[in-house]
Amino acid sequence: MEKGLILWFTGLSGAGKTTISKVVAEKLKQRGQKVEILDGDIVRENLSKGLTFSKEDRDINIRRIGFVAHLLSRNGVVAITAAISPYKAIRNEIREMYDNFIEVYINAPLEVCEQRDVKGLYAKARSGEIKNFTGIDDPYEPPDNPEITCCTDQESLDESVAHVISSLEKYGYLT
Amino acid sequence: MEKGLILWFTGLSGAGKTTISKVVAEKLKQRGQKVEILDGDIVRENLSKGLTFSKEDRDINIRRIGFVAHLLSRNGVVAITAAISPYKAIRNEIREMYDNFIEVYINAPLEVCEQRDVKGLYAKARSGEIKNFTGIDDPYEPPDNPEITCCTDQESLDESVAHVISSLEKYGYLT
Question: Which one of B36, B60, B63 has the shortest CB-CB distance to A71?
Fold first, then answer.
């Protein structure tokens, strides 16, 4: 297949976006698909250095990710974005602007994400060392109708990955 | 062919980067190649809004273009960049970082570009309305050893385009 798409992961820090996206990417590559992961941290480093975590700057960051994902997807690449992207309106803006947009909600309760605290960021947010941290002192707006939802507190990594892949088959993006 | 590359146009405003890049893109598409043009203005709008034309901000802008061009080229796309990119060091940084980098120097004397003044920018730079304008009150550093040079004051558009295409064949990027 040579059909590109934008696989837009959204969810709290620690919900499992990066972990799932990496395994999904491997599975797709095994099927001969071209894949790029636009991870939140990598994009901040390469496209958005200097931007803060204010709502305005987050929106600018998300628009840039959307622009690059679009350039890739229209050339046959599955562009997987794995940034928190907490605001519904901007995610919907991207959905409206570009074709083949699939929203993947990586859903885990805040308590679970905070308990995992893989990067130690929740502790810093609770102590006030980090400001504007999504879920703590900044909002996260879950999608109303995501094409795919993975509940990572209730399913294994393998189950989440299988669910993403089978959903892409169901939607006709994979044969 | 599915070989991607970064076709990096550099040259003064009005030298002919955008014009030549568009026709080259068409020729490549006719040969079945995937192509994206990362034009200076489009990139400023979508990836670098808010950046100035200081040396520091220009370098950031060029690094972003390089990053996106690399994402495209490693997925089999010919990424044509058409920003002025006046500084040699940052162009060479991009060359070192990424594979399949081809520098295309669109060379026309400043007097010729200023006489063309397609966008009316030279007049504004001369009057002081625009500051840090390349060639007027900001430097342009020509490449030492570009893979391809087009002298647009001495050759027609068709000749420049033919020269770019035949050079890509010579370098083994087109069959």
Answer: B36
